Automatic annotation (TrEMBL):
Domain (NADH:ubiquinone oxidoreductase 30kDa subunit) ranges: 109-231
Record text on subunit structure and interactions: NDH-1 is composed of 14 different subunits. Subunits NuoB, C, D, E, F, and G constitute the peripheral sector of the complex.
Enzyme kind, highest EC tier: translocase
Membrane topology label: Peripheral membrane protein
Gene designation per UniProt: nuoC
Organism: Nocardia ignorata
Annotated protein name in UniProt: NADH-quinone oxidoreductase subunit C
Catalytic activity: a quinone + NADH + 5 H(+)(in) = a quinol + NAD(+) + 4 H(+)(out)
The protein's Enzyme Commission number: 7.1.1.-
Cell compartment(s), UniProt: Cell membrane
Chain ranges passing through the membrane: none
Length: 251
């Protein structure tokens, strides 16, 4: 069953009305979480004088694991339709998609970077999918996830069917290249620039991959978790942010 089938009983599709969160099937086994590291303190940093008062916290860094089918709600029909759309393009679904995660009622497709443009094109162009809009790009840094330290997350929306999904791509810090989706979704222009600016992900094929917030000659990428919390000279304003252990305290 495709999304635009007359047998589809979803009366909210295409009307701009947010649909209810799909419920997980009762007989589905819960996904096993992936523990990728351990965080010490509130911010997970070392040697920077964390003054939050939570330096003794020790918590595991956990990511939701892959979800086995059935996924519940419209997710199963969506995955089946995408599989058929990729097969029509002579692309093997299981080769392109690393895993599917359903977490807190939301679906994320983990896509291998070399096939990102193909998957995005299928989601946009297939008449039964029609994810016409990319809402933005988010960067994530997991320094303890060896070989997959940097993630780029694309938030896609189908205006036609009033549905949202995510595409997530993981790359190593030593090779932070991801194909740009500018050719598929031109609105990602500034979003990819911001992700590059703050995380250092290089979007190959972007028409002008330059910094968008920090000065052009700024060193490093300030949203990475291993970036210092303070003490960075801000030469273009003639100011300096003191490190945490030198800041004024109010306790």
């Amino acid at each position: 069953m495709t999304f635009d089938s007359p047998d589809n009983t979803d009366s909210t599709a295409g009307q701009g009305i947010p649909e209810e969160t799909p419920e997980a099937p009762k007989h589905r086994k819960p996904a096993e979480d992936e523990v990728i590291g351990t965080r010490h303190g509130m911010f997970g940093v070392h040697g920077t004088g964390d003054t939050s008062g939570y330096g003794g916290l020790v918590t595991p860094v956990v990511l939701p694991g892959g979800t086995p089918p059935p996924y519940g709600g419209w997710f199963d029909a969506f995955v089946g339709t995408l599989r058929a759309a990729l097969t029509h393009r002579v692309i093997a679904f299981d080769t392109v998609i690393e895993k599917i995660v359903v977490f807190r009622g939301e679906l994320t497709l983990h896509v291998r970077r070399e096939h990102l443009v193909d998957v995005a094109s299928a989601l946009r162009d297939d008449s039964s999918l029609r994810f016409e809009l990319c809402l933005g790009v988010s960067g994530v840094h997991y320094p303890d996830e060896a070989g997959r330290e940097l993630h780029a997350v694309y938030h896609l929306m189908s205006i036609t069917h009033s549905r949202r999904v995510r595409l997530e791509v993981s790359v190593p810090d030593a090779d932070p290249h991801i194909p740009s989706l500018f050719s598929v979704y031109p609105t990602v222009d500034w979003h990819e620039r911001e992700t590059y600016d703050f995380f250092g992900i290089l979007f190959d094929g972007h028409p002008s991959l330059t910094r968008i917030t920090m000065p052009d000659d700024w060193r490093g990428h300030p949203q990475r978790k291993d970036y210092p919390l303070g003490g960075i000279p801000v030469e273009y304003k003639g100011a300096r942010i003191p490190p945490p252990d030198e800041r004024r305290t109010y306790s």
